[in-house]
Each structure stands twice: as C-alpha cells, then as structure tokens.
Amino acid sequence: MSLRYTSRRIRPGKLWSPPTCLNGSHTSKVTFGWQKCRSVASTASAEKVLFPGALNSEFTNTLNFLRPSNKKAIPTYRVLDQYGEVLDKETGVDTEDGEALTLYQNMVCLSIMDLLMFEAQRQGRLSFYMVSAGEEGIAIGSASALSPSDVIFCQYRESGVYMQRGFTLDQFMSQLFANSKDAGLGRNMPVHYGSKELNIHTISSTLATQIPHAAGAAYALKLQNMQQPGVPPRIAVCFFGEGAASEGDFHAALNIAATRQVPAIFICRNNGYAISTPTSDQYRGDGIASRGAGYGIDTLRVDGNDIFAVRRATKEARRRALEDGGRPILIEMMAYRVGHHSTSDDSFAYRQKLEVEDWKRRDNPITRLRKWLEGRNLWNEDKEKELRSRTRKDVLKAFERAEKEKLPPIKHAFDGVYEKLTQEQRLHIEELKDILQRYPKEYDVDQYEGGVKSLDQLLDEKN
Amino acid sequence: MPPQTPSIRALSRYLLRPHTSLHPRCQYRPQGRRQSSAAAGARLNGTVEYDTTPLLHHTSRAALSNPELPPDIRKGQTKRINLYTAVNEALRHALQTDERVLVFGEDIQFGGVFRCTMNLATDFGTDRVFNTPLSEQGLVGFAIGAASEGMRPVAEIQFADYVFPAFDQIVNEAAKYRYRTGTTGVNCGGLVIRMPTGVVGHGALYHSQSPEALFTHIPGLRVIIPRSPVQAKGLLLSAIRCNDPVIFMEPKVLYRAAVEQVPVDAYHLPLDKAEVLKTGKDLTIVSYGTPLYTCSAAIAAAEKDFGCSVELIDLRTIYPWDRETVLESVKKTGRAIVVHESMMNAGVGAEVAATIQERAFLRLEAPVKRVTGWATHTGLVYEKFIIPDVTRVYDAIKKTIDY
C-alpha cells in the first residue's frame, strides 16, 4: 500500500510542536500490546532487543538463511492404511459401526449422483456439472464431525457436505435444473447450492472470496457465543482448493482470522490440480499447511482418502477452535482429483489417463472405507449391489421429478437485488412486460411459472 | 470575509501548530503556497467561505427548520460541529443502540487518521471497535461475512483511492449476496463501507479520487455522498439501519471545513431523495458532495452578473438516485448542468444527462452541460486546473443560459 498520510501536509513546523497523534493533540487512551513491551525494550546491556515486530527473536552471530527446501515436509496424518487396516490399534477408530455405514452410503450416493449427472450434462440435459470423485471423504467426513449449527462456506467441490447435512436429492436436482423449487430461484449456475436450514452459505463462483467471509462470520459467532452463554458455541468452517489458496483473499483471511482470534476451521482440499495447473506451478513451499505457521495458526495435514483421519482431525480442530474464546485452525486435506475439473474440461489434455486410473484403483476414500467395513464383516458384495441399484433408482427418480418442474417465475430476475424494488427497477419491469406482450412469439414465457403475470405480481407488491 | 488582523494568541498558536488556521472559525483556510490558493486578483476562484455559505446551517433555527427532520428532533437542541464529528456521533449512536454494530478498518482504534472514530474503542471496547490488518480485500470480506451472520459492520477504507483491492468483494460478493442466495434469505445488508473521497488540495493521484461512478454501475449497492455535517449524521445512521449494502463516501476536504449546527439527538434522513438546496427558474444545477459549495459560489456570482435564477439540487444518494426531483426541476427550468469531480466519461453526470434527455426532451432549451474533472489523473500541482472550480461552473451557466 502506498504512503499513508493525514489530511494535513507534514511541514518542518511540526517538529517544534509537542509529540502528538497523527492528526491532533489527542493521545490515545487505548494501550496496545506492543506498547506494554516497549518499556523493557532497550537497556544498554539487553541480550534481546525487543523489536515490536518480532518480540521473541534472539540475536545470533551466524549468518544463516532459513531454507525451506532443507526442512522435512509436514507429515500427513492417517488412521487407516490403504488396505483399510487400522494403524494404531490402541487408539483405534472413534466412529461407531452404524455411523461408518451411513458415511459409506452417503459417499456411494454422492459418487452415483456425480456419475449420472455428469452423463446428463453430456446428453445436454444440464448446462454444467462438477464431480467430487476422489474427494468424497473430505466433504462427508468433515461435515459429519461438525455440529449441525456450525456455519459452513464452500468453494464448489463439497457436495458431500450438503449431502451429509441432509440436503435431499430433490434439493440437489432442483438446483441443478434451476427449476421453480430451487432455493436459489434459478439465478445460479448448477452446483452452486445453498441452504439456510443447514447453515451452509450459497456458493459463488469467485474463488477464495468465501475465505474472508468465513473469518468475518466466525467473528460474529465469537461475539454471539459470548453474548449467549446458554447456547452451545458455534464455529465457522471454510472449504477451498489449493489453487484458491493462491488468491489474495486466502492471505487476507488467514491473517485477519489470526489477529482477531476467530473460531474457524479452514479446510484446504489439496487435490493436485487447479483445472490444468499442477501444484508445481501453483506454489513452491510445502503445500498449503506450511503457510499456517506463518500466520500463527495451528495447522495439520491429513490424508483426505482416510475418512476416519478426516473426522478425528476435524473434531479435534473444532475443540481447539473454541478454546480460549476462539482461534483459527488450518487443515490441509490431501487428495487426488480423479474426475475432470468440470464438464467443460477434458483433463486428459494435461495429464495421463494412466495416472488417473492408478489413483482410482490404488487409493480412494470409498474403497478404503469399504475394505475396513468388510474387515469387520459389516459389508459384503450383496449389500454393495443392493445399495448401488437402490441409490441409482432414487437419483433417477429425483432427476425426473426435477426435470418436469417449470422454471421459476420471471419476477425473480428483478427482486432480491435490493431489499425492496427501486423506482428504476419498476420502470424496467414495465418496459420488459410491454416487450413480452407485444412480441409474444419471440419469447417462451410459458416455461416460467406464472408467465408474464408474475411481473404484475411484483409491481403490485407494496413498495 | 474581510481580512482580520490575527491576535497575539492566534499568532502564538500558529507558531506552535502551524497546520491549524490563523482564523479560528475557518479551520480549513490554506496558508502559504498551497495548490488550491487562488490567483491574485481572482474574482470568482476565491477560497470557499464555509463560514457564510448558505449551504450550511449557521444558526440553530435554520438547522431545525429542515422539514425532513422528525418533529421531536425539530424541538430539540443543536450544537456546532464539523463533518468528522458528525460521523463520529452517528457511529457512537449506532454502537450505543445496536449491539450488532461493529466498527473496524485500518487505524480505527486510536481514532482514525481523520479522527472519525475518536474515543469509540475506549467507550465500546476493542471487541466492537478494532484495527484490522492492512488489507482492503480482507477487511471488506470480513465485513461481508460478519454481516451474513447477522452483524451490522461499518468497515472503513482509509481512502476511496484504496478501495480497489476490495472491488471483487464489493462487486461480486456484497452486491450480489441477497440476489444469489434466493429464498435462503441470507444477505449482507447490514454492511456499510465508509471511505473518505474527493480532492483535498494536495492529494495528488492516490488521495484525491472519487470512484462513485464505478459503484453506481453495480446493481445491489447503494452509494451515498453527504455534503454537510447534518447530512453525514442523518445519512450514515440511515445507511447503518438500511438492509442493503451501502458505500458511504465522505468528502474529506469537508471533514474539518464544513461546520454547522447539527441536532444533538439521533435522526435519520431518507436514502432515496435528492434535496433542492435553492430554487430557481432558469437553470438547474445537479451536483453532490464538495462541488456543491463551488456551485453555490458560482450561482451567487452568475445571478448577480446575468440576472438569472438558478436551482441547485444535491443528489445525496448517487445510486439509486432520485430521478423525479431532478426531472421535475429540469422540466420547470428547461436547462441543466451536472457538476462532479470525477472524470466526465461514463461518470454520474452521463447518467443524469442521459436521463434528462430521455424524459424531459421536449422541455430542454439547451444541451445538458457537464462540468467535471478532465480526462486525466489528479497530478499534484495541477489539481486546480482539473477539478471544476467556480469559474468553470460560472462559465457553464453563462453558456447554457446564452444557448
């Protein structure tokens, strides 16, 4: 940022005046943290000079640059190995069998929905879609370890969060088809889900903008936690990819979250690619996790293909986030983006098919949990077949229902921009209505609920 | 005002603190070789006489006669304060009456570089009034998040020139939040973003800009620029109460200069009404913020010289703006001039002029004239040539009347 100055020019005359605050004679009554330390700052014989910018730094006589490349990479926490075996038998798995089965069913349901909707888009019945393949465990696992009242901000590849919290197949389909039952009133592209009841904010396409939102929301929750001691405390959780972490908003958010000590968990899905850009073109440090320390944030790296590790990490992060009134936590969940970036992307243009197949076969969150379930005799081939055919039918039914619905009323093109319609908007609505009525053959208004009449309804509403 | 001989006290004060004025009542008189100083012998381009301008309420009676004020306020007390104090009082009242209100930004805690948040941190605690890291996109994003969870944040951008890092958050997030969330009903309407704006005599490129036209192009935002302490207080309180995100731009040159009688108690002014400051029958001038004082001086000179009668309208809310008041006036006078500091192309004046052309075409007797900043940046020593001054407005009146 540039030179900051006051409304007055600094002139030599000011030197003769008593020391004042920037803009007048008033001295601040607020004591700052660093001011308290200043009194001990520099005695002549001090071993440490307390620079306000780095209070705990000691002097050294050796010229020693910190070389990140010499450091060992941050380890990745896991509970299961890739064969579904628990590694630390003593601690074991803190998930009940019944719950593990639900998680598994949700992951399978998500992957089947992804498969079908991807195909639907290929057939042109849907404008756009994004799959979660390879990252089902991160979304479903972390959502299952949070309180339902915790506020969540997503990027777009977290459909599992919605599914785990109880977003129904009908709600998914209504949003994807932007029909009259879509909570977003048909305004957003597919996959931009949102739900007030489930405390998940509506997704926007702009990358990383939700990260500072999560910091601000967590600050609001912190104040509300203090104001309502009887109500169970809440935190904010924010998901984003490793590509989004290169945006300025990531830096701004983590920094402000740390300085304001907000109860928030920042979950990075590091899946190796941002569209076609591999992580080697995205950053040169040790992933995203290594940045946490720089902001003074407790950080952990987790195996995203291990749903038990994801759950335990999230639970512990939530506990820590609420400690001492609040503090931010960063978790980097490692994964591999098995699917294409979106339906508008063919990922084999920039990576080997073999590499993808390898990841699909060798390690993915669904098969790993299935192996664990089978090891405990909770699951078998018959149950698998039954689950898959039932889920496929459920998805297709919801799909057909949603496809038959009309589009939302045209009036929703205008309302909701402001709390109330503006005078200017009224003029525009009247003009549009006039056009629609005089050129009826040019527009297909009947596929919108209520046709042209919905505009009249809007104009009749009280200002 | 006739030149006064400064008293010994004033002189000694000047030696101690030369940045304050020799003239105790007019705190913003420039001294020495200042970029905004007028040429010797100038008749039109003098310094603005904030002490006597009819745009400010110099008596308690004048302040309370404002019909927009609620009846109980009109029976109440007033006191003489400047614009930054009015902003401070509005923030204080909002913090006092609504525990959801938060005030934050860069250097807020000690009172702000323009003193708008003086003593708020000590009185309301640093949980509600606090410094943020130096990151505009971060603090605006933070404010949007807090607003979406039910708070009413008042974020400050230190200068309007530095709002651009936060542009993505304002345009793509704040403005679209309510619209894109649909029936979930989540919104960030509690948000107010305050920023000092406009030229200040020596602000050069990055302490002078008026980016209001960039915000008026965004559906979902309200853009407000007050011209005086009374307005700053009433409009800021309305902005904080309003359920739409508001960009509140404070002309920084007026922070100390504009002093007037302001009701002591809290009051709200409407966010969709322009104000007719002076009625006239030959010509309408539409402006907002600081240039209104320039217009007022130019009108006084022009009316004396040409015997015309000019109507002056303060837009106050730049978007959504009050088309009806402007059109009614132009239909009456048949001539219009729009004055603003920022550049002409695609500025606010373009929208006002186009609207007048569209809806008052048959009543127009002259083309709508725009008196605005030229198509350049505000180079330090060139400011007085770039920003509309009394001479340019005076000349525009002359040309439009003679057309």
TrEMBL record, chain A:
<dbReference type="Pfam" id="PF00676">
    <property type="entry name" value="E1_dh"/>
</dbReference>
<keyword id="KW-0496">Mitochondrion</keyword>
<feature type="domain" description="Dehydrogenase E1 component">
    <location>
        <begin position="105"/>
        <end position="410"/>
    </location>
</feature>
<dbReference type="GO" id="GO:0046872">
    <property type="term" value="F:metal ion binding"/>
</dbReference>
<dbReference type="GO" id="GO:0005759">
    <property type="term" value="C:mitochondrial matrix"/>
</dbReference>
<keyword id="KW-0560">Oxidoreductase</keyword>
<keyword id="KW-0479">Metal-binding</keyword>
<keyword id="KW-0809">Transit peptide</keyword>
<dbReference type="InterPro" id="IPR001017">
    <property type="entry name" value="DH_E1"/>
</dbReference>
<comment type="similarity">
    <text>Belongs to the BCKDHA family.</text>
</comment>
<dbReference type="InterPro" id="IPR050771">
    <property type="entry name" value="Alpha-ketoacid_DH_E1_comp"/>
</dbReference>
<keyword id="KW-0786">Thiamine pyrophosphate</keyword>
<comment type="function">
    <text>The branched-chain alpha-keto dehydrogenase complex catalyzes the overall conversion of alpha-keto acids to acyl-CoA and CO(2). It contains multiple copies of three enzymatic components: branched-chain alpha-keto acid decarboxylase (E1), lipoamide acyltransferase (E2) and lipoamide dehydrogenase (E3).</text>
</comment>
<protein>
    <recommendedName>
        <fullName>2-oxoisovalerate dehydrogenase subunit alpha</fullName>
        <ecNumber>1.2.4.4</ecNumber>
    </recommendedName>
</protein>
<dbReference type="GO" id="GO:0009083">
    <property type="term" value="P:branched-chain amino acid catabolic process"/>
</dbReference>
<dbReference type="InterPro" id="IPR029061">
    <property type="entry name" value="THDP-binding"/>
</dbReference>
<keyword id="KW-0630">Potassium</keyword>
<dbReference type="GO" id="GO:0003863">
    <property type="term" value="F:branched-chain 2-oxo acid dehydrogenase activity"/>
</dbReference>
From TrEMBL, chain B:
<dbReference type="GO" id="GO:0003863">
    <property type="term" value="F:branched-chain 2-oxo acid dehydrogenase activity"/>
</dbReference>
<dbReference type="InterPro" id="IPR009014">
    <property type="entry name" value="Transketo_C/PFOR_II"/>
</dbReference>
<feature type="domain" description="Transketolase-like pyrimidine-binding">
    <location>
        <begin position="81"/>
        <end position="257"/>
    </location>
</feature>
<dbReference type="GO" id="GO:0009083">
    <property type="term" value="P:branched-chain amino acid catabolic process"/>
</dbReference>
<dbReference type="Pfam" id="PF02779">
    <property type="entry name" value="Transket_pyr"/>
</dbReference>
<dbReference type="GO" id="GO:0007584">
    <property type="term" value="P:response to nutrient"/>
</dbReference>
<protein>
    <recommendedName>
        <fullName>3-methyl-2-oxobutanoate dehydrogenase (2-methylpropanoyl-transferring)</fullName>
        <ecNumber>1.2.4.4</ecNumber>
    </recommendedName>
</protein>
<dbReference type="Pfam" id="PF02780">
    <property type="entry name" value="Transketolase_C"/>
</dbReference>
<dbReference type="InterPro" id="IPR033248">
    <property type="entry name" value="Transketolase_C"/>
</dbReference>
<keyword id="KW-0560">Oxidoreductase</keyword>
<dbReference type="InterPro" id="IPR029061">
    <property type="entry name" value="THDP-binding"/>
</dbReference>
<dbReference type="InterPro" id="IPR005475">
    <property type="entry name" value="Transketolase-like_Pyr-bd"/>
</dbReference>
<dbReference type="GO" id="GO:0006091">
    <property type="term" value="P:generation of precursor metabolites and energy"/>
</dbReference>
